[in-house]
Design brief:
Helices cover about 30% and strands about 20% of the residues. The protein contains 19 helices and 23 strands. The longest helix is centred in the first third of the chain and has 30 residues, at about 85-115. The model is unreliable at about 1-90 and about 105-115 (pLDDT under 50). With about 675 residues, it is α/β, with parallel strands linked by helices.
């Protein structure tokens, strides 16, 4: 297979030979919508094969990659798709959409490049007009197809998704930036292989294999016997240096447990739930934060969750305090999602960055549901409500209970690499080319896991986050049209990150382990995680924008779109800390997530959006042909305008407001 696509001219020559109208007619004339129901007689396969042969498809690396990695899973066998006549079906319904996107993108890029004398406003309008509901829908449907197996990091599904994204970035003229480069130079890096777009993220995962019941017993020999997944889930830290494939066998036993309230230690908020030593102890903690009071109405930012309320913080603080294990108490209101989310993922792989040296390790990282927590409180001689009342006070002192705990649990280790995908448009300013605006969206999801009641075990992640990836791809396409006729002053990096679902690991790796851009040269981060699939809105939301001066520019671009800027919805669930913009914030880079508000113009749209919440981290998060994308276009236009103004106005240097520091 040849990979000598060294210039956009060569790509143009290939795509010019594609008879687009004939292919469109051949595919669309039968109005086939369900891939699984396609019969060979539905298509003129000889004509399609003849047309595709004319395009020299074998020169496109993604096709060879797919053929070399024919997918077979426990639920379905895709391998036959790649053999004989079925290969033609794959070409018609999987490869051709990619070729069409690339071809139409090149045509549009060339059209934009003819306007070499256009003004800045004209150029912006060209980019805005390039935003396409069709492109967003097509990529969303593709990335969330069963063929991608849920896009879990380190799997064939992720490889498919990464190659698809890289192929599009390369076709639009983005420089490969997976291994970084020299931003001070005016000479772009040559594209030779998809791998140049990939930043390899070293990860270590552990999958529960044998989990016994979790047994508590008090001094009266009264016991609480909890069943895995139904009442609790359990993970373990993996010690640095553990071998790939190794089985970690843990026997966790203790003679007491310590209730530590909300498990928070913050000098900023004058709060310490660790007033006693918990070294080598098993601790129990609520998630979320103590509620505000009349005496302190802004405690932990009142109804807005801070990072101290996130489960990731609870683990981090427990390690810092030397605890051997932690049990988090789940409630729907404090977690922001139901127990089913934890149950469905509890048997799947959990990952961390491979070079994270946990010392000491948390031997036991567990969650119990509210019913189990109520029974545990009773076993301790108290009540769930008493725990809540005590934990709400700054004078709270951790409570020891003579409760024994016992569980045997084993976990299989897998060492693997996830893929961040990075493409760059180099700025034209000699003095500001090395300053970069970073657009992000995570392309991973949960892969194959626990089957639902229908037997479906592929977690397609259509809304979360094939949708955000597809929107950002469309923004990337639109901004690529500015490159020749009016380059931006600053550079722009599109970064599609891996392992967000595992705890923002791909973006953490980029920001704190191996930045592809010097951190002090990143001006801002614009993130999208989920898009509006229900209809037009009156307001846009910049999650986290109020924490920095980015809010000023968000209001400016929203006004240009005749939109208001609304407050973050449901502040109690802490959206700012639950997606990749937070990794940038921890690196002190002003960051926000662009999303739409709930003030839909059509009230029915609001109802549909609410109903979709039940699909969160479920196999039912699948592509829906009834989705509409006019609200997503509003979201994309705001993201594009914001990136544009930050790239063009080199006097803008956003900063965080006072007190915005994250542990």
């Amino acid at each position: 297979m040849s990979t000598n696509t060294n210039s956009s001219n060569e790509l143009n020559n290939k795509t010019k030979s594609i008879p687009l109208q004939k292919i469109n007619k051949t595919i669309n004339q039968n109005e086939i919508q369900n891939f699984d129901e396609i019969n060979e007689e539905d298509l003129n396969l000889e004509e399609i094969e003849e047309l595709t042969n004319q395009t020299n498809l074998d020169s496109i690396e993604s096709i060879d990659f797919i053929e070399e990695n024919s997918i077979q899973t426990q639920n379905s066998s895709f391998s036959q798709i790649f053999q004989g006549p079925k290969r033609n079906l794959l070409i018609a319904f999987f490869i051709i959409p990619i070729i069409l996107l690339i071809a139409t993108s090149v045509v549009a890029v060339n059209y934009g490049r003819k306007a070499t004398n256009c003004s800045s406003q004209d150029s912006l309008n060209i980019a805005l007009s390039s935003l396409s509901e069709y492109q967003i829908r097509s990529n969303l449907q593709l990335l969330s197809h069963d063929l991608f197996e849920g896009r879990a990091p380190g799997t064939r599904g992720e490889d498919l998704s990464a190659n698809t994204i890289a192929s599009l970035l390369s076709s639009w003229g983005y420089e490969p930036w997976g291994q970084s480069g020299n931003l001070s130079s005016t000479i772009p890096q040559n594209y030779k292989h998809f791998n140049q777009y990939f930043q390899s993220v070293a990860l270590v995962g552990s999958t529960p294999e044998k989990i016994s019941n979790l047994i508590f017993k008090n001094s009266k020999s009264e016991t609480l016997n909890l069943t895995w997944l139904d009442s609790f889930i359990i993970r373990t830290d993996v010690l640095f240096g553990t071998l790939d494939g190794q089985l970690l066998e843990r026997q966790t036993q203790a003679q007491e447990i310590i209730f530590v309230g909300y498990g928070i230690n913050s000098s900023y908020w004058s709060w310490n739930d660790y007033k006693i030593d918990v070294t080598d102890k098993i601790i129990v903690s609520f998630v979320n934060e103590p509620p505000a009071t009349s005496e302190n109405p802004n405690l932990f930012e009142a109804d807005t969750l801070t990072y101290f309320g996130r489960w990731t913080y609870k683990y981090e603080e427990a390690r810092r305090k030397g605890a051997r294990g932690i049990i988090l108490i789940h409630t729907n209101s404090t977690a922001g999602y139901g127990w089913s989310v934890l149950r469905n993922s509890g048997g799947s792989e959990s990952s961390s960055l491979e070079n994270d040296e946990f010392s000491p390790i948390l031997e036991m990282k567990s969650w119990i549901n509210e019913n189990a927590a109520r029974q545990l409180a009773k076993l301790c001689g108290t009540t769930f409500e008493d725990w809540q009342s005590a934990a709400a006070l700054s004078t709270f002192v951790p409570q020891k209970y003579s409760i024994t705990i016992k569980i045997n649990h084993s976990h299989r280790v897998r060492k693997y690499n996830g893929k961040n995908i990075a493409g760059l448009i180099r700025g034209k300013s000699d003095s500001h080319r090395d300053e970069v605006i970073v657009f992000t969206s995570h392309h991973d999801h949960l892969g194959i896991g626990q089957p639902d009641t229908t037997g479906d075990s592929i977690y397609n992640g259509a809304e979360d986050n094939a949708s955000g990836t597809s929107l950002m791809l469309n923004v990337a396409f639109a901004l690529s049209r500015l490159e020749s006729n009016l380059k931006l002053e600053r550079s722009i990096l599109f970064l599609f990150v891996t392992a967000e679902e595992q705890g923002l690991l791909g973006s953490e790796y980029f920001c704190s382990k191996k930045p592809l851009i010097p951190i002090n040269k990143i001006i801002a981060n614009i993130n999208v995680d989920g898009i509006n699939l229900w209809g037009k809105i009156k307001s846009i939301v910049g999650v986290g924008s109020q924490r920095s001066t980015l809010v000023t520019y968000l209001k400016q671009v929203a006004n240009e779109e005749n939109l208001n800027v609304a407050d973050e919805p449901n502040k109690a669930i802490g959206l700012f800390f639950r997606s990749d913009q937070f990794s940038f914030a921890r690196a002190k880079i002003p960051a926000l997530k662009v999303m739409t508000s709930n003030d839909y113009i059509d009230p029915i749209a609001a109802q549909k959006a609410k109903q979709s919440d039940s699909n969160y981290h479920q196999p039912s998060d699948q592509y829906d042909p009834q989705w509409v994308f006019d609200g997503a276009i509003q979201q994309a236009r705001v993201a594009l305008r914001l990136g544009y103004i930050l790239s063009q106005d080199t006097t803008i240097y956003p900063t965080y407001t006072q007190g915005q520091d994250f542990p």
